[in-house]
Specification:
The chain has a four-stranded antiparallel β-sheet. It has five helices and four strands. Helix content is about 40%, strand content about 40%.
């Protein structure tokens, strides 16, 4: 009985993980959370982007990609989708991401993600920054 329950729970977790990319909100949330929780790989990115985003990532050198993918000094505080506008297989999501950097700065960035449906999956086609707010926890020394 215990093995059956474990099997069912494991199956539900696998299905839940694969279902995330089947909505534009789920695909965007998966991407943003992964960016802050681990060092992402080129393969991870390639599976979740298309269009302008794919071209941008393909053009990055290994050094630049490492800088992009390594956010170990950044901790996500919040993620919220503010609005959604969809037409056929394309959606525009306005969202807000809050994070802090080495406990020196609190930041909040408002962005628009252009999402496109390819098959049953939603991919990020482009992202635009709308507004960025930074608040320092300590004074900035311009001489350093």
């Amino acid at each position: 009985m215990k093995k059956l329950l474990t099997y069912i729970l494991l199956s539900l977790m696998i299905v839940a993980c694969t279902e995330e990319d089947k909505t534009p909100e789920g695909a965007l949330k998966t991407f943003v959370e992964a960016r802050f929780e681990k060092v992402v790989t080129r393969e991870f990115i390639a599976e979740r982007v298309s269009g302008k985003m794919k071209e941008s990532f393909d053009a990055l050198t290994d050094e630049d990609f490492l800088k992009f993918s390594d956010l170990r000094n950044v901790k996500r505080n919040s993620f919220k989708i503010l609005s959604k506008s969809c037409h056929e297989n394309k959606c525009f999501l306005t969202y807000l991401v809050g994070f802090n950097t080495n406990n020196q700065f609190n930041s909040e960035v408002k962005k628009i993600a252009e999402m496109v449906q390819v098959g049953e999956k939603w991919l990020i086609e482009d992202v635009s920054n709308l507004k960025t707010y930074h608040e320092g926890n300590e004074a900035i020394n311009p001489l350093e």
